Model the fold of this input.
Amino acid sequence: MCRRYSSVFTNERTTKERPAAAQKFTAAMAETIHFAEKNPDQAKASVSKFLGLKDPESAQSAYEAYAKRLVNRRLFIPAGRIANAVETARQSGAHVRRKPAEIYDNSFTENLERSGFLKELWGSEIPAKKW
Done:
């Protein structure tokens, strides 16, 4: 089975010098995912506008892909996926100097979980941990 995850990229300087901004952004991503799932008509309209879709079937297909199948509702980045991506990049000739554990940070998502933010957002529907 292929498990997917979603991620947002920033540089290390931002997370170290502006952790509150990174934390707020992570919370906003969680809220956006929740909103899209709970408000499919508005989410489909937004996806349609962004992708320039004109027909309802394409909007539904895009919604199913982006808001349902491809999104990781918990926002955790699986370590194994990062290691696989780094290895694939190396095999393709990329010079990756860092170890996989050095290029991702789940701490902002972990803070959402510890603080009860995800539980408050999703209620009893909070997504189960998959990784």
About this structure: Helices lie at 12-17, 19-38, 40-51, 56-69, 79-91, 107-115, 117-122. The chain has a mean pLDDT of 87.
